[in-house]
Amino acid sequence: MYILTIEGKNYLENGLPERRLIESINNGAVPIVDLKGQGIAINWARKNGWIEIREGKVRLTGKGKEALREKTAIELALFEISEGHDISGDIMKVLENRKLVAAKKLGVTIQGNIINQLTSKMIVSQAWKKHAFRKYDVKAPAPELFAGKKQAYLAFLDEVKEELVSMGFAEMEGPTVESVFYNCDALYMPQDHPSRDVHDIYYVNGKAVIDKKLLSKVRACHENGVDGSKGWGGKFSNEKTSKLLLRSQGTALSARTLANNPNVPGKYFAVARCYRPDVIDATHATEFNQLEGIVLGKKVNFRNLLGMITTFAKRVAGVDKIKFLPGYFPYTEPSTEGYIYHPKLKKWIEILPAGMLRPEVTKPLGINVPVMAWGFGIPRLFMIREGITDIRDLFSYDLEWLRKRRV
C-alpha cells in the first residue's frame, strides 16, 4: 500500500505550494522578485496553466481563478491516501515523482487457536488458558469517523450570541418583511436617499400600518428637524413610508426597539438576516447576517463605543490589528468605519461601521439619552477568524472543509 511522506502530509495539511501561491496573488499582479524561494510553486502553477508571467509580474489566468474554487486531482488523491484508500493510474505516478507518497509492504501472519473476545463462560471454566489472544496494533490504519456537529458558520453565530449575552445584552427581534418606516424613515434617512432606490432594496407588495403618533413625530423631524436642526425639508410622503421591503439593514431592529420603551440604561443586539441586490463575488452576497447592537444610557459616549468594538472584535474574531477612520451614516454623528486587517488577503477590510445615534433618530422615538450603535458584517468576522477568502464558502458543500472546522 502507499502512505504519505512527510512532505505529502505537509501538503495535505497546509496546501500544495502552487495552491498557496495562487491564493497569495488572488487580488492582482505580483512582481516575480517578491516570490523568491517559491520556484517549485511557480513551476507547477505554470505547468497547470494557473499563472502567466509578463513584464516581470505574475498574474492569475482564468484557469487559475477556477482552481481557487476547486480541489485538484492531486489534493483529492492525498486525502484519499491519508484515509487508507487505494489510488492508481497516472495520478499515482505524479505523486511518486513529487515524492509525496511512499510504498509500504504489508504482511500477514496466520496463527491457530487465537481468540479475540473473552466471555464470562471462558473465565469461569478457565478455558481462556488454552488460547492465545489476538494482538491489536493501535497504529494500524482505521476508518476515520466524523461525529455530527453544527455547520461551522451557524455555530459561530451561536457563539457570538452567547458572547453578547454574557456581556449583558438582550436580543432584539423583528420581522424580515419590514416597513420602509422602520428600515429608513425612523433612522432619519432622507426619502430621496440613493440607497432607497430599487437597485439597493427588495421591495415587497403590500402596505404597513404605522402608529399615527409615532409617524407624526418622525414626519415632523424630517420636515422641520429637532433641537435646532432644519430637517431635510420638503414634504414627507406617508405613501413611501408605508411600503414593505425585505429588511436591508439590521438597524431597523434598533429603531423598533427604541420605539417600544427599552430599558434605560440598556444593551441590545440582534443577528439579523438582511437582503440587498448585489453582484455575488468573493466578498459580496445578496443576503447576509448583520450584527446589530445599541447601548443607551446617560453616560455612554463615543469613547465607550470604540472600546467596546475593539474588545468584541478581539474576543470573537481573534484579531489584533484594528483601526478606525471617520465615516458618514444618515443616522449617526459622530460616525466611524472600523477596519480589521486580514492576514491572508494582506489588506484592511471595512467591517465595523458604528456611531452615536443622532437626536433626529432618538428624540422622535421617545429616547432622551445618548445611544451608541453599530452594524457589523458578521460573515466577514468569521472569514477573518477562519482564514476564509471567499464568502461563498460559508455555505459550502465541501465535506472536507466542513469536517475540518473546529467544534
What does this 3D model show about the protein?
Helix 1 (6-14) crosses helix 5. The model has no long low-confidence stretch (mean pLDDT 87). A 7-stranded mixed beta sheet has the order 8-12-13-17-16-15-14, sandwiched between helices. Strand 14 and strand 15 (332-342) form a beta hairpin. It has 2 domains: 2-103, Arc Repressor Mutant, subunit A, CATH 1.10.10; 152-404, 2-Layer Sandwich (BirA Bifunctional Protein, domain 2). 33% of the residues lie in helices and 22% in strands. The protein is built from 16 helices and 17 strands. It is elongated.
Quick rundown:
This protein is an alpha+beta fold. Helix content is 33%, strand content 22%. The protein has helices at 6-14, 17-24, 39-47, 62-67, 73-82, 90-97, 120-125, 152-166, 180-183, 212-224, 238-241, 251-258, 302-317, 359-362, 378-386, 399-404; strands at residues 2-4, 30-31, 51-54, 57-60, 101-103, 114-115, 132-133, 170-171, 177-179, 203-207, 243-246, 266-275, 287-296, 322-326, 332-342, 347-357, 371-377.
